[in-house]
Design a protein that fits this description.
single chain; 193 residues; mainly alpha; Golgi apparatus membrane protein TVP15
Length: 193
């Protein structure tokens, strides 16, 4: 008899499940997390920008010292150019459309890396070995070697076509965000009806 009860329980149909209530937020698919490559590229771009700003600051200090002491006017002029080019590196790292539009070479990572190496060499050039400016010399070395390392990473990454992959993923992310916005507008207009 116990077996018959078990068999009947096994053959009894299950009651239908109630359909979940659909809300506007549950209709949308969960957004995927940010692309890890894009996050890494943004972080590296931020570090490169900070390093270029450090190079610019070091060159400003060196130019002020050169003009103030009148020790070497040419060194001061050289430092002013280094500040200007370091500012271009910072703006290139923001990937501002105006700069990329007119200087296409900065859209490619190899070109960007070469510019960073150039600024690093300009920062390191004409070191002052006087004992009273030891802190400035240490700061010059740190800033120039950090920007040199960033430039080498950009060149190697550019040769490996990481920049192309980054641009493709940025385009995909932009398309996805626009599709989600369009879907949210559609859902909210349907909810209003």
């Amino acid at each position: 008899m116990a077996r018959n009860a078990e068999r009947e329980a096994e053959t009894l149909p299950l009651p239908p499940l109630a359909p979940p209530r659909a809300s506007s937020s549950s209709r949308l698919r969960a957004r995927p997390g940010p692309d890890p490559l894009l996050v890494i590229c943004r972080c590296f771009s931020f570090v490169t920008s900070l390093t270029a700003i450090l190079c610019a600051a070091v060159n400003v200090l060196s130019a002020v010292r050169s003009f103030k002491d009148r020790s070497d006017v040419f060194d001061g002029i050289f430092r002013c150019y280094a500040v200007l080019i370091a500012a271009i590196v910072v703006v290139a790292e923001t990937e501002w459309g105006f700069i990329i539009k007119y200087w296409k070479v900065l859209d490619y990572w190899v070109g960007r890396g070469m510019l960073q190496i150039f600024v690093a060499v300009m920062t390191r050039a004409f070191p002052d070995y006087s004992s009273k400016q030891k802190e400035l010399l240490i700061l010059q070395n740190v800033a120039s070697y950090m920007l040199l390392a960033c430039g080498v990473v950009y060149i190697v990454s550019g040769i490996l076509c990481i920049g192309f992959l980054k641009r493709a993923r940025q385009q995909k992310e932009t398309t996805r965000e626009q599709a989600v916005k369009d879907l949210e507008v559609t859902v909210s207009s349907q909810d209003a009806l």
